[in-house]
Known about the structure:
mainly alpha; five-stranded parallel beta sheet; two-stranded antiparallel ribbon; 68% helix
Amino acid sequence: MNKILIVGHKESHYQALDKILQGCGMAPALLSHTHQLSPLQITDKLLRVSKPAETQKQIAPSAESKPKKNRHHAHRAPSQLLEPKTSQSEVLNPYHQKSPKKVWDNLSFDLILANAEQPLWGWSDAQAVSLLEYWAQFDEDFVFVLTYDKPSDVLVRLLDGAGQDDLSEGAIEQALKDWSSYNQALLEFQQKYPNRCLLVNGEQVIYSAKNYVSAVSDKITWQMDSSVADDQLLAVSDLQDKPQLSEMSQFFAEQLLLEHDKVNQLFMQLQAQADLPLALQKRTFNTLSLLKETIAQQKQLESTQEQLLATEKEFQSQTENLKQAISSAKADHDKDIQTLKVAQGQLADQQQENTLIISQLHQVQEELEKYYLETKKSTDLLNKEKKKSSELEKRAAELNKKSDELNQSVAQLTKEKQAIHEQKVKLDELVKQESQKLAALKKQSDDEVARLTEQNKKLTQENSVKANENNSSMQQENELLIRQLHQVQEELEKYYLENQQLKLNNQSQNNSVNAASSQVQSKQTVYYGAADRIKQDLPYRLGSTMVSHSKSTKDLAKLPLALMKEYRQFQKDEHKELPPVEAYQDANEAEKVKKHLSYRLGKTLVDGVKSPKSMVDLPVKLGREIVGFKK
C-alpha cells in the first residue's frame, strides 16, 4: 500500500500538485474509520497535543547504521526499509518538528485502516510540515512530495495585495522569514530522508507535469499514468484563476531580495537539492515600459485622490448631518432608555409579585388537594343547607300568609282596642265622679261623726249628773248612730270595690290587646345586618385570610395553614337557621361586600376546589381576579 503526503508553502501550488496526482491514479484519502476525521482534521488535533521533537534530543540513525525496525511493519524485509539521514539542525523555528504522545497514535491508525483497501492514496496539507518526522517514523511506506516556490513570488503577492499602510519593512521581513523557516524545514527533512522525499518546484511542475508524475512513480511501487499529466493541468482551478503578476511588482521584489542574502542562499540550496528544480531564466525589465506603467499608475492615483477628496467633502457634510441626527436621536434614545428602565423596574416588581403569588397559589393548590374530601363533605352539607333554605322559604311564605291574617286580626283588635279605650275613658270619668261623691260622703260622714262625738262629749259633761237617769235613752241613741255609721262605711266600701273591679277589667282588656299586638309584631320581625352575614360566610373568611397573609413573604409561607385553620373554625361554628339575604332590609349592603377582593378571592377558591378539573386552572383564575380588581 503506497501513501503520498504532499507538503508545501501556501504559495507553492501544493494543492495543484495533489490534483495532478489524483488525475494520474492516486486516490484521495478517505475519512478515518472510527472517528470519521479527515487527514487535515487529524493534523490539527496532533499539532495541538504535540511537543517539539528537538526537546527529546533523539537523533535518527544514519543510512550506514543498523536498520531500525518499523513499530508497525516489523514483518517487512530489511531491503524494503529506507533509512533516514541525521538532521544537523537543532534550531527551533515556527515549523519545527513535533512529536505527539503515543496515546494519539490511534487517530493515525484509524486513518490508515480506513484506506487500507486503496493501493495508492494520499493528500496535501501545508500544516503537516511540523509532522513530517512523525509520519516518517509512523509508517515507512509514506512518500513525501515537498514543493517550494520562489521568495520573489511571496513579495510580489505582498506588494500587490497590501495597502499603503500595511506595506512596511517589518511586513516584508516577516513574509521572508516565514518563507525561509518553512522551506528550511522542508530542506532539512529532505536531507534526512532523501530516499523517501521528492523535492520539486511548484512552478516547474506546471511546465513539466509528466516529469513530475514520472519522478513520483520512481519513489513508489505503483506505476502512474504520466501521459495524462498535462491534461490534468487544465482541470486545476487554482492555476486557471491565477492572476497576472505586475511586472513592476516583480522588479521591486527582485530588488528587495538583493538585500537578503540568506534567503537567496536558501533558495539556491533548494534548487541544488531539488529533484525537479525551477529552470531559471534571466529576466530583463524594459525601463520605458516600467516608467509608463508608473506614470499611468500615478495618474490613476491622482484621479483617485481627487475623487476621494470630493467624496471626503461629501462625507464631511453627511457626517455633520449625521452628527446632528445622532445627537437628536441620542437625546430621544436617552429618554427612551429612562422610560424603559422605569418600565423594566415596574415589570420586574410585577413579575416578582406574580411569581410569589403563583408560588403561593401552587402551595395552596397542593394543600387544598389534600383536603378535597373534606371539601366534598362541605359540598354535601351545602346541599342540605340549600334544601333547608327551600323549606325555610316555604315556611316564610306560610308565615307571610299568617302574617296577613294576623294583620287583619290586629286591625280588628285595634278597632276593639279603640272601642275599649273609649269605654275606658267613660269608665274613668264615671269612676272619677263616683270617687268625688265618695270623698264628699266620707267627708260628710267624718264631719258628722266629729260633730256627734263632740256633742256626745258635751252631753256627757252636761248630763253627767243626769247620766244615770237618761242612760238607757242615750245608749239607744248611740247605737242608732253607730248603725248609721256602719251603713255609711259599708256603702263606701261597696263603691270602692266596684271602682277596683272596673280598673281590673280595663287593665285585662289592655293586656289582651297588647299581647295580640306583640304577637303580630313578633311574627313580623325586621332583619338587619346583611353585610355582617356575608362576612361570616366561608368565601369571605377565606378571602380575607388570603389578603391578610399577602403583605410579607413570611405571611405568604403560612397562608396554606391559615386557610385550613379558618376552614376548620368555620365548621366548628354554630350555624343558626337564618332567613335568606334577600329578606334583610339592608340587602344592598351585602351586594357591596360581595365586590370586595376578599369575597371574590374566597368565592373563586371555594368554586375551584369542588372538582379536580377546576383545581388545575385555579391559580390562573385567582390571578385574573386580582388583576381585575386592580383595574
